[in-house]
Amino acid sequence: MKRWRTQVGIVGAGPAGLLLSQLLATRGIDSIVLERRDRAYVEGRVRAGVLEQGTIDLLHEAGVAERLDREGLRHHGISIALHGQRHPIDFPALTGGKSITVYGQTEVTKDLIAARLSRGGDLRFEAESVTLHDLDTERPSLSFEHEGDYHEITCDFIAGCDGYHGVCRGYLPPDKAAALERDYPFAWLGILADAPPVDENLIYCRHERGFALFSMRSRTRSRHYLQCRPDENLQEWSDDRIWSELRTRLGKAGGDALQPGPLLEKSVTPMRSFVVEPLRHGRLFLAGDSGHIVPPTGAKGLNLAASDVHYLVEALDSWYRAKDARGLDAYSATALARVWKAQRFSWWMTSLLHVFGDGFQDRIHLAELEYLLSSKAALATLAENYVGLPF
Ligand code: RFL
Ligand code: PHB
Prior knowledge:
Elements: E1 2-5, E2 8-11, H1 15-26, E3 31-34, H2 39-44, E4 50-51, H3 53-61, H4 66-71, E5 73-75, E6 77-82, E7 85-90, H5 91-95, E8 100-102, H6 105-118, E9 122-124, E10 128-133, E11 141-146, E12 149-154, E13 157-160, E14 178-193, E15 202-206, E16 212-218, E17 221-228, H7 239-250, E18 263-277, E19 280-281, E20 284-286, E21 292-293, H8 301-322, H9 326-353, H10 359-374, H11 376-386
Parallel strand pairs: 1-12, 2-3, 2-13, 3-9, 6-15, 13-20
Antiparallel strand pairs: 4-8, 5-8, 6-7, 10-11, 11-12, 14-17, 14-18, 15-16, 16-17, 18-21, 19-20
Helix pairs in contact: 1-6, 1-8, 8-9, 10-11
């Protein structure tokens, strides 16, 4: 058994765990990050693409925004396509100057890993059988297997940043924690392609055959999604069929401008809203997808991981500087207040833009979408939430 000591033990090297480790280091607080997968897998996982300004600010504070500033694509709005018409939504005009940035989660992750390693950060990939101990004491610990040895890390605090399928959430006592969730009767078939984006802005498209999203990673790389069945068989989707379906759903709103290209990735993502309350048990704090997930329609998941991390860093910093536990005691309620607003927005965007296959509900959602596109007040509400509520 090898024994180690750190201030904050972090489980998971996704955006939440890596950003937490990096921000803690800027405050002089040390951490060890344990990650189940290998580095290449973590860096290659294609997921989010839209960063709110608050997330960008945190990446600056963490000292990892140099490439983001160079390569991130600043977007001054999105478009919603309906009935073959594209409706641009001008974020700066509706929010007093705010906008968003498109920069892949893969790139955020690579930048954070490079920064941690170049500054001597302790990241341990391929850590197996991570187990948490003594969470309701002042010396919680983590045990795991790594490169054939057993290890134990004694910590002051443990951060559960191990995503929706991680182990940390399971340590909340069932009688003290409540999980609230909603499933949706559809999923997203996502592709990454070497093809230019359809437009400079993202296009969210509602069509009678289902939702489609036209996004991007760069000026030469597209990321598109199609609403599909949760049990959709990818084998039935040839590249030609995917491009043809994307073109049909976009229709007169830009289908002709869609340029196909070689596919680099193809996957099906289920849609779920989920929150566990509270985000804390003793010295264990959950941040990011381990505590909550949103359907991707509002582009909020990664940004919520960032806001949780912000609150947790401030709370830990106060504790280490002044032994002030108020931030830690308030962490769950503070983070969840923002999480629930983003849950509401993600659920609402998902409802409006997808076809549920329930005649009455679908007509109500369509009426609301038509109203939204005709109302400056309603569009301002959408814009304010999309660019991100303050944290
Ligand atoms: P992650 O990224 O899932 O990272 C968790 C890490 O923990 C590791 N792990 C373990 N390590 C050690 N021991 C264990 N027992 C472990 N169990 C798990 C995992 O290997 C992993 O490395 O969670 P984190 O850090 O909280 O980050 C959350 C984000 O990844 C997620 O919210 C976003 O990707 C969601 N999301 C989007 N968010 C946005 O803000 N904007 C978007 O545009 C956006 N688009 C998306 C998305 C998610 C998508 N999918 C695939 C779910 C689009 C899609 C299609
Ligand atoms: C993406 O580019 O992957 C993306 C963009 C916006 C979303 C979801 C995903 O709402």
